[in-house]
Structures are given as C-alpha cells and as structure tokens.
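The following record pairs a protein chain with its ligand, methionine sulfoxide.
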Amino acid sequence: MVERATDLPDDKPGRYAALRAEIAAVIAGEPDRIARCATAVALLAHAFPDRFLWTGFYLVDPQKPEELVVGPYQGRLGCLRIPFGKGVCGAAAAARRTQLVPDVHVFPGHIACDSRSNSEIVVPLFDGNGALAGVLDIDSASFAAFDATDQAGLEAICADLLTLP
Ligand code: SME
C-alpha cells in the first residue's frame, strides 16, 4: 500500500514540477539506467496513489530491438514482454509518441495485465542519443484519468531521465 506524499503541491502541474525536480536531484550523477527508472517509478507511484494503479517502464531489449521487456514497476504482476506494435505500450514504441487512452477497452490490441485498468498513458523514453530506450506505462482504474497536464508532466520527466548528467 502506497501512502500519499504530503509534501508535494496539491495542484497537478505544481506536483509534476516538484516531482521533476525531486527525480533530477535523486538521480544526479547516477549512471545506471535501471536505478534512474526505479527512482522515477517510486516517486511517481507515491505522488499519485489514487490515480496510478500500475506505474512502470518497459525497456527495449538490446537483444531484440523490436521487443520491450518489463523494467522497474510498482503494481500487480505485469506481462514480461511486449512486441513493438502490440497494445498501448507497443504502439507508443512503434510510433515513438505518447499514447493517451481514455478507455482501454476500445483500444485495438490492448493488453490487459490488470483487469481493473480502465485508462492508460504511455510515454516514450529516449536516451541521450535520441534512440528509443523504452516506454513509461501508467494505468488507472478510472476512465479518462489522464489529460494534457499528465502528458506534459510525464514527457518532461522522461526527457530528463536518461539525459541529465
Ligand atoms: N496495458 C498495456 C500492457 C502493460 S500492463 O498494463 C502493465 C498495453 O496494452 O500495452
């Protein structure tokens, strides 16, 4: 059970800005990719415990460049591998663009890892060379839980994650 972070602003843009700064401070100087992703997942999941049912990364498998393999996450058991083009994560990886899905039940090929999930946002993650490194996947039990503020906040955090020194 995650507890609500009490020291973050109540308004959503302010909360994302504070999270972005906190993540940047914690990962500063840390070269390990998994450590960086795990830090972002932990802080994000605890910042929005009511809306975020499953928060985690699927990372591009270096052995299979067209396949994602599960990375750090918080939530119930997720599927281990997702081919590019399959489900919401695979669509984000193939298109290299954020997918905002208000109702997962009408998304073609949606992969239901947790049957309680009703909406989802998936944001691509790029490394310092601009290559796709993976995707950040967040599921919610509410329909239409994510909006443009979530997209902007999560894209900003992902933009920092593998590029800040
Ligand atoms: N729903 C995702 C699969 C991953 S899980 O939800 C954790 C998808 O369709 O890509």
